[in-house]
Design goal:
The complex is a heterodimer. Chain A is mainly alpha-helical. Chain A is built from twelve helices and four strands, in the order αααββαααβαβααααα. The two termini of chain A are 27 Å apart. Chain B is mainly alpha-helical. Chain B is built from 14 helices and two strands; from the N terminus they run ααααββαααααααααα. Classes of the chains: A mainly alpha, B mainly alpha. Chains A and B meet through helix 5, helix 6, helix 10, helix 11 and helix 12 of A and helix 1, helix 6, helix 7, helix 9 and helix 11 of B.
């Protein structure tokens, strides 16, 4: 599967493309932050401090003028009060409406985004790839049935189907113990991490058909190759041929699609959390939703910063995807997803 | 095969897909925990209401009768009754549909108007500053959550600069049309409409602008390297004609295919854009229905959204057949 030629192409493309380097740095960065969140986050992301709420990020300290009218000795006087809201170096990215540290929430939000993105994609591929390979390899009726089903599936937008399913099923979530905290390495950090189970299952369900389509297309062309014919003539079983010949030769476009899908699912997860359909409150989309009510008063950072976090992660994954596509197979159609 | 027969065939296939959509929506009734009555009845419904709903859904009948009844009702344009809102579902859904269509069309027009010239510019000035800027823009565009972009635009352009409205639809496009013949001042109505629709259209359209820019750029680069382009150049055809008549036309073919496939993303994007801008369309209705547990309305929205997807794809395929003389109609 990973032949020396593939490695050579990857290296060559990487050396040539500055964007590939940026993508790798971004993805590795987000990955490290997500894994080691309890050490990176300066505060517990769920700890409230109502005395220090809505603090601006460093560099955005501001003066607020409040004008009020007062009745003094039977006369109406306008009093202008000037308050200075100073940024707190303890909270470099400011705090949210409940005084929780924005930087720590961004750090923990990376866990949710990456876990849902990767697990959702793995689930979609685990369902879609076998179905697509079998349909393409067998062709005929199985294939027809799959393609018709795929047509129907595509008629429902991912987001609409996802909110409908979550609305019907509820928002189940699994509490996972944080290994670093249980080992006593990161005192004061949340002891458990919420994995939004329903969201992962649902994004897998709504996206598997993209994998099925790509796997089917590959299998359709691979089945006519000489080596497959030879394997069949030698009495190889369908299962054996699929696993040892068809899958390895179909894997490149599937991997490329996988990166596109991770990006699409990170965006989908943020949209679901924004709409309140996630099972966790530590998510970038969720923070954007709560910051939305504060933009009219100019507190841009509560909704603004999580958006930059989403954008940087998705740009990273997309750049990595472009790199893989250009290095592995310049002929693949690059834009599937969402 | 003639174009007419091709279109007929696509329509027949489309009817099949719509049938599938209806069947899936019917089946979704059974993924709700507990009796399907739970999904239809308001939470505080009395036993009598619940029994009446069970009879209306035909739950005392065998499954195939329930199914046939559901399909039959839909064919007559009956999408059921929303007990939560006390309203007819079909009426409600068709009342909200035009707003969503308006938003989706505005976003698409905006996306096409910007992306195709930008993609062409990017390809013809490869590795020049304009190309880098366009590439950067399209990378950012496909990576930005549209709801966040919407909120940031509200912050800067609507709240701080006061250039646009923060929410709502205003008179809508029908209002603008009415002003053409009616007594309202046309220019004011048009400007008012623009103040409502511009931000939602940009929020929804940016992803597509970016996507089509990318596709147009890579498509143009491929085409401009082809032998026929060299030949038309050698023949002495002006460069503009070479680019726009020949290369661009061939580039648009894959662009249109992807657009059709991505239509679901557009409708999904409309749902969330509507939520950000309180745009009174189907998306807002979908979210409200889920929060109110108003299943009949959600079901109606899903059927309409699935059907629209199929209809627009037939239109796209017909366009495709029109653009590409080499297309095999099967």
């Amino acid at each position: 599967m990973v032949s020396p030629r593939v490695v050579r192409n990857l290296k060559k493309e990487f050396r040539r493309s500055a964007l590939a380097k940026v993508g790798l740095v971004l993805v590795v960065g987000v990955l490290l932050v997500a894994v080691f969140a309890p050490f990176v986050a300066p505060h517990n992301p769920t700890e409230q401090d109502l005395d220090g709420k809505q603090l601006p990020p460093i560099g955005f300290s501001k003066t607020v003028e409040e004008t009020s009218s007062e009745l003094v000795d039977g006369e109406v006087r306008t009093v202008t009060e000037t308050t200075r809201i100073e940024a707190d170096p303890q909270h470099p990215l400011g705090t949210d409406p409940l005084g929780r540290d924005m930087l720590s929430r961004i750090v923990y939000g990376a866990r949710t985004s990456l876990l849902v993105g990767v697990l959702g994609t793995v689930l979609a591929a685990a369902v879609g790839v076998p179905v697509g390979l079998i349909a393409g390899y067998k062709s005929g009726r199985v294939d027809d049935a799959l393609m018709r089903f795929a047509d129907v599936s595509l008629a429902f937008p991912s987001l609409v189907l996802a909110v409908a399913l979550i609305g019907l099923w509820g928002r189940a979530a699994v509490e996972l113990p944080d290994p670093f905290v249980s080992a006593g390495l990161a005192p004061g950090m949340p002891a458990t991490f919420t994995l939004p189970g329903t969201v992962i299952v649902v994004v897998g369900i709504v996206n598997w058909v993209w994998f099925a389509r790509v796997a089917r297309g590959e299998a359709l062309s691979i089945r006519t190759e000489e080596y497959v014919k030879a394997a069949r003539a030698l009495g190889g079983s369908d299962r054996g041929i699929l696993l040892s010949h068809v899958l390895p030769n179909a894997i490149t476009p599937i991997i490329v699609l996988g990166t596109v899908q991770i990006a699409a699912i990170i965006l989908l997860e943020s949209a679901l959390s924004f709409l309140g359909f996630s099972g966790t409150t530590l998510s970038w989309g969720f923070d954007i939703a709560q910051g939305r009510d504060y933009i009219s008063s100019g507190q841009w950072w509560i909704a603004g910063i999580p958006g930059f976090a989403i954008m940087l992660s998705v740009i990273g994954v997309n750049l990595l995807g472009d790199w893989l596509r250009d290095a592995l197979d310049p002929d693949i159609e690059g834009e599937g997803g969402g | 095969m003639s174009v007419a027969r091709f279109v007929t065939k696509r329509v027949v296939q489309g009817v099949g897909v719509v049938w599938g959509v209806v069947t899936v929506v019917f089946a979704l009734r059974f993924v709700t925990p507990g009796s399907p009555v739970n999904a239809v009845a308001p939470l505080d419904a009395s036993q009598e209401t619940r029994r009446a709903i069970a009879v209306e859904l035909g739950l005392d009948q065998p499954l195939y009768v329930q199914y046939l009844q559901y399909v039959g009702d839909l064919l007559r344009g009956d999408m059921g009754f929303s007990y939560v809102r006390g309203q007819d579902v079909a009426r409600l859904v068709f009342l909200k549909l035009p707003a969503t269509v308006e938003l989706a069309v505005a976003a698409t027009v905006l996306a096409i108007a910007i992306s195709i010239p930008l993609g062409v510019l990017s390809a013809t000035r490869r590795n020049q500053p304009a190309d880098y800027l366009a590439t950067l823009f399209s990378l950012g565009g496909i990576s930005t959550p549209n709801f966040w972009l919407g909120i940031m635009m509200i912050l800067v352009l609507a709240v701080q600069l006061g250039l646009f409205q923060t929410s709502g639809r205003g008179v809508g496009f029908p209002g603008v049309l009415a002003a053409v013949v009616g007594p309202e001042p046309f220019l004011d109505t048009l400007l008012s409409w623009l103040s409502y629709i511009t931000l939602p259209a940009i929020a929804l359209g940016t992803y597509f602008t970016a996507l089509i820019t990318r596709l147009t750029r890579s498509g143009m680069l491929d085409e401009l390297g082809e032998a026929y382009v060299q030949a038309t150049r050698a023949k002495g055809l002006p460069e503009t004609l070479v680019r726009y008549k020949h290369a661009l036309r061939n580039t648009l073919i894959p662009v249109i295919t992807v657009l059709g496939l991505q239509l679901g993303t557009l409708i999904g994007g409309a749902v969330i854009t509507e939520a950000v801008f309180s745009w009174p369309g189907l998306g807002t209705l979908v979210i409200q229905s889920i929060n109110l547990r108003d299943w009949p309305v959600l079901q109606g929205c899903l059927v309409i959204i699935g059907t629209s997807f199929v209809v627009v794809n037939i239109v796209v395929d017909t366009l495709y057949a029109h653009l590409d003389p080499g297309v095999v109609y099967d």
